[in-house]
Every structure is written in structure tokens, then in C-alpha cells.
């Protein structure tokens, strides 16, 4: 076969000519700072090569500003799987429990009790009977059942006894809520914000402790008391005819009262069943004296036979900001973390006493003179004296009245027929009818703002299905306390000479008020135990709600103690004799505020 060589010569000559020309191309780009060189002098085309967050080892890791756990994989830095996002948490708890507020005596601890107050005035009574039930000539003190019998080693029944809060309340019932929000970082450190509220009250009404058969004609008894005071005033003015007429109308009105069970149509019996041995307030009326050996003598106990009420209220609000540090112990499912934070509390406590007294004096016989219900100037009975049957809850004389007022059914050497005393005068008035029945009250409140630093530990054990946790916190709080007091008619009101008289310019001359401020340091301790479990998935209705899809049920117990807190009920100087300028004042006393609570709630992590 024959080839033509002219094509070879032409193609070769063309290539030689082309080699003399300059080639055109894009100039190389500069290498971007911090990026690896691609071997060609330019930045890799987007979408190709390693991600921008990676660097070739041993260059600097791109994760310097986060939780530093990285690995080197074949010469390339990569993010470790331990690098987790921030975990948020929310805890909502309902609280219920007890709060210890005060263990004080409502009254002056140095004042003598009521039996001792009237002992010198009543002396020894002559036993008198009516209708065949009495024993004539038997000498016995009507105070015997109410005084201490050292030989028998027992204390008698209370006669207008003082109220000891330590004996009647072991702590007021309270309810509240606690909300805890915050987050945990990848290294288990975190932040907490908490809000707490806890409120409770205690109410004591001495009438609630009376026999169920008493106080069955309350309204008529109060009306009869006011009428007896009017009759007394008419007699004192010498208007005997008007007093007799009013007494006759009262007797007639009493006779129309229904006589169903526990009800009577005789004024004396109505009062015997509706005037109660309720309680008393021991007071320093200016007569208390302290001797060299430390013993005291004097004072009085003020009786209240219509109302005796004491109430305590406590409100606690609090908040905190807390930083949780990385674990100091991390043993698998168990970890311990220190905490440091700032805590604030607002504590508002209120004490209130309210009493009402008939202003009547009463005793079964004893040589009193005067007749006709209201009595007159010839009465010899002291206005201080109010005698009751021992409160044993038994109707010894079967007159239908349990623990009569103005009667000693037993225990005092007097046995008296019920029928014979229906027409015998027992109740006497000595006072101005515009003032009596008299009402006394005293309010004392404290507002305390407490703030400071706290440190502690939190510890937990478990996992997602069950978590047991707890915390112990200690703090020192600056306490700024403001106390306020007001009241009226705190005095031995059976003695008119101890009270200031009302006039047109001052309708409450026996009223008083006081205010004080205090600043000090209060230590704090808080302990919590909680358990959390994924239980909502087993509840038929709740498990269908998205809000409970990742929620866990919480239950626990907590204790909060705050020392050197003002005892509002105990911060009262119980003294009263307005006629000599003696009124109750604030005398700050401190104790430990303690609240113990069970909690039930829900927790979320997201």
C-alpha cells in the first residue's frame, strides 16, 4: 500500500507554528487565612473537599470556645460525640405541710393566774343550797377545784386559764408552691432560678372546745346581759321603779323562750348555759414585784366569758439565683455538684387576739345582797369574781346544764338544787351599759426581708426512668424586720378604775399602738429529697397529652429552717392599766422559723 507523506509534513508544521503563541488562563487565587492549601494555589470549590469547620492536624482545633472534647481522626480534627447541647429543665411542685411559728404564752408569764387574782376577794364561801340540794354550814373554797393540789401531784381544772400556744398547736397547716427553672451544660454545670411561696394559718376559738350542749341561746343571752347592765345603771341612779319595770319585762321575755333540748325559759339558766369559762390574759397591771431570790408576785389575769380567740397567720415568699458547678464526684449514675447562689425571703407573720366579756360578776351565794337581776348599790360581791363549775363535761346536778356559770356543781363543797336557784340572783352588773359587754383586741404583725448568699451541694442518682436527688444548702441572710402593734381595752376590765372614760372627743381612750425596726443576721438551712419517675406513660388519659409525653412525676420532702426570726406572737409585753398610762408594747423575741413540707409535682427536660 502507498502512503502520502505530505499530510504528515503539513500537520507537523502546524504544531510547530502553534507552539510559538502565548496561552491564556485564570490567575491563581490567594489562600484564605486558616484554610488548608489545596495543592493548586486556590480555595477548594464549594461542595468539594473537607468541610470548612475541619482543619488538618496539627493545626488549631476549631472548637476552642466550646466544651473541649475533640478527637483526631487520620490527621483531621473532628467534634467529639460528647459535645452535647444545653439541656433545659422545669420543675413545678405543690407543697403541703406544717410551719412552726410560736410556742409562746399568750400573756405575761410573771402575772398570777385568775384563781390567785380573786383569792383575796372571795375568801371562803358559805355553802348554800336551794330546794334541798345544798349542805348548810360546810366551809369550802370554791377555788379548790381550780388550784394546784401539791399533795395529789396534779393541777386542777382551768378557770380562765392562759393559752399556751405550745400546748394547742404543733405547727400551723400550710400550703404553697415551688417553681424551679434552669439549664445544665455539657459539663453538668448549670444555672437555677427558683420561686417559692408558703402560706398557712392557725385559728383558736375557745368556744369550739365547750360542751356541745352549751351556747344554745346565744342571741337572747347577749340581749339579757345588756339589759342587766341597764338595770344596774338605773339602780345606781336611784331610779328603782324603772329598774324594776325593766327587770319584769326581761323576766317575762325569758319565760317565752322555747324549752327544747338545751334551751331554757329562765334568765338565770340561760346565762348559766351561755356564759362560758373560756380563757384569760395574764397582765402586768403595774403591781408585779420581783424579789431578791428571783420570785415574782402580783399582776392579774383578765377573764373573758363570751369570746376568746387567737389567730396566727404566716406568709413566706422567696426566690433564688443559683450557679451549679461541674461534678466533684461523678461515679457512673451518681454525681455530686457544689452550688453557690443568692437567696431572698419575704416573711409576713400576724398575731391577733380577740376577747369579749359580759362584764357580769357571778357566784353561787356567798353573802351577796341585792335582788332583781341587775342588783344595786347594796351588792357585796366583787366585780372581779366569776365562778364556774369545774369543766369536767358532766351535769352533776342533772339540771340540763353542763358546767354551769355561777354554780359549783361539784368539787367545791357545794351541791345545790337546780330548781331552787332558778329565782335566786346569781349574775350582777357593776358597769356602764354603754361599755359592756366589753371587747378587747390586740394585733401584732412583723414584716421581715431576708437576703444573702448561700452555698451547698446537690446530689443525684439514677437515670431517665428513675432519678433520686437531694440538696443541702446553708446561708447567711441579712434580716430587716418591721413590727407593728395596735389594740384596745387590754386591761383588768372588771375594774372600772383601770380604764379611761370615754368622752365626746375620744371614743377609744384605751386604744394603743407601737412600731419598731430591727436589723440582724439570720442563718438558713434547707434540705430537700426528691424522686422522679416516668409514670405518666401509664396513666390512660395523661399519656395521650403531648405536654406529658416527656414529663416525669415528682415526689419529695423538704425542710427549711431560718434562725433568729422574729416571734410575732411572743414579741408582746403584756401589760395594761390605761389609768396609769400602762399599755402593751412590742418587746422583740426571736425563734427559729421552721417549715416541713411534702411536695408533689411534674418535671420536664428539653
Write down the overall geometry. Answer: elongated
Spatial order of the strands in the main sheet? 3-10-11-16-18-21-22-23-24-27
Residue runs with pLDDT of under 50 for 5 or more positions: 124-140, 366-379, 411-419
Q: What is the straight-line distance between the termini?
A: 87 Å
Kindly state the percentage of residues in helix.
10-25%
User: Count of DSSP E strands?
Assistant: 27
From the alpha-carbon coordinates, what is the Rg to the nearest angstrom?
43 Å
Q: What count of domains describes the coordinates?
A: 1
Structural class: mainly beta
Tell me about the biggest sheet? 10 strands, antiparallel, barrel
What is the percentage of strand-forming residues?
35-45%
Total count of helical runs of at least 4 residues: 6
Amino acid at each position: 500500500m502507498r502512503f502520502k507523506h505530505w499530510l504528515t509534513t503539513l500537520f507537523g508544521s502546524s504544531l510547530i507554528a502553534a507552539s510559538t503563541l502565548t496561552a491564556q488562563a485564570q490567575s491563581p487565587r490567594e489562600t484564605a487565612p486558616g484554610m488548608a492549601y489545596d495543592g493548586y494555589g486556590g480555595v477548594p470549590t464549594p461542595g468539594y473537599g473537607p468541610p470548612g469547620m475541619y482543619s488538618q492536624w496539627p493545626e488549631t482545633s476549631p472548637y476552642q470556645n466550646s466544651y473541649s472534647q475533640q478527637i483526631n481522626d487520620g490527621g483531621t480534627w473532628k467534634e467529639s460525640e460528647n459535645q452535647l447541647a444545653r439541656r433545659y429543665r422545669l420543675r413545678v411542685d405543690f407543697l403541703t405541710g406544717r410551719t412552726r411559728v410560736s410556742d409562746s404564752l399568750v400573756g405575761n408569764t410573771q402575772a398570777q393566774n385568775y384563781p390567785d387574782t380573786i383569792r383575796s376577794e372571795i375568801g371562803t364561801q358559805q355553802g348554800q343550797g336551794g330546794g334541798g340540794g345544798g349542805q348548810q354550814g360546810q366551809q369550802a373554797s370554791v377555788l379548790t377545784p381550780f388550784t394546784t393540789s401539791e399533795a395529789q401531784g396534779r393541777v386542777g381544772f382551768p378557770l380562765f386559764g392562759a393559752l399556751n400556744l405550745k400546748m394547742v398547736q404543733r405547727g400551723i397547716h400550710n400550703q404553697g408552691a415551688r417553681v424551679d427553672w434552669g439549664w445544665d451544660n455539657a459539663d453538668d454545670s448549670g444555672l437555677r432560678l427558683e420561686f417559692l411561696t408558703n402560706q398557712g394559718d392557725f385559728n383558736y376559738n375557745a368556744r369550739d372546745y365547750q360542751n356541745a350542749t352549751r351556747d344554745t341561746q346565744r342571741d337572747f343571752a347577749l340581749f339579757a346581759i345588756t339589759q342587766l347592765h341597764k338595770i344596774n345603771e338605773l339602780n345606781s341612779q336611784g331610779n328603782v321603779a324603772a329598774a324594776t319595770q325593766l327587770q319584769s319585762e326581761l323576766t317575762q321575755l325569758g319565760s317565752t323562750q322555747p324549752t327544747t333540748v338545751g334551751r331554757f325559759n329562765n334568765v338565770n339558766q340561760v346565762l348559766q348555759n351561755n356564759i362560758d369559762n373560756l380563757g384569760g390574759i395574764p397582765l402586768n397591771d403595774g403591781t408585779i414585784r420581783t424579789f431578791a431570790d428571783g420570785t415574782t408576785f402580783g399582776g392579774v389575769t383578765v377573764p373573758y366569758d363570751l369570746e376568746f380567740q387567737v389567730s396566727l397567720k404566716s406568709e413566706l415568699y422567696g426566690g433564688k439565683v443559683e450557679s451549679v458547678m461541674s461534678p466533684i464526684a461523678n461515679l457512673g449514675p451518681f454525681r455530686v455538684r457544689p452550688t453557690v447562689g443568692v437567696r431572698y425571703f419575704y416573711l409576713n407573720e400576724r398575731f391577733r387576739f380577740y376577747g369579749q366579756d359580759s362584764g357580769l360578776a357571778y357566784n353561787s351565794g356567798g353573802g351577796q345582797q341585792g335582788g332583781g337581776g341587775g342588783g344595786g348599790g347594796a351588792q357585796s360581791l366583787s366585780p372581779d369574781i366569776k365562778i364556774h363549775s369545774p369543766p369536767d363535761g358532766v351535769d352533776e346536778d342533772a339540771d340540763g346544764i353542763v358546767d354551769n356559770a355561777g354554780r359549783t356543781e361539784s368539787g367545791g363543797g357545794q351541791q345545790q338544787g337546780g330548781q331552787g336557784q332558778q329565782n335566786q340572783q346569781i349574775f350582777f352588773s357593776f358597769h356602764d351599759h354603754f361599755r359592756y359587754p366589753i371587747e378587747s383586741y390586740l394585733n401584732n404583725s412583723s414584716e421581715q426581708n431576708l437576703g444573702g448568699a448561700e452555698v451547698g451541694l446537690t446530689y443525684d442518682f439514677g437515670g431517665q426512668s428513675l432519678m433520686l436527688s437531694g440538696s443541702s444548702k446553708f446561708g447567711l441572710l441579712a434580716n430587716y424586720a418591721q413590727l407593728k402593734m395596735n389594740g384596745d381595752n387590754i386591761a383588768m376590765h372588771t375594774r372600772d378604775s383601770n380604764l379611761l372614760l370615754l368622752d365626746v372627743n375620744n371614743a377609744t381612750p384605751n386604744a394603743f399602738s407601737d412600731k419598731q425596726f430591727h436589723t440582724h443576721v439570720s442563718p438558713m438551712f434547707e434540705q430537700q429529697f426528691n424522686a422522679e419517675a416516668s409514670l405518666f406513660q401509664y396513666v390512660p388519659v395523661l399519656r395521650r397529652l403531648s405536654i406529658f409525653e416527656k414529663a416525669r412525676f415528682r415526689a419529695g420532702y423538704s425542710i427549711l429552717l431560718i434562725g433568729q426570726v422574729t416571734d410575732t406572737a411572743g414579741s408582746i409585753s403584756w401589760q395594761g392599766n390605761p389609768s396609769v398610762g400602762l399599755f402593751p408594747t412590742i418587746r422583740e423575741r426571736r425563734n427559729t422559723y421552721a417549715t416541713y413540707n411534702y411536695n408533689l409535682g411534674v418535671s420536664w427536660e428539653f
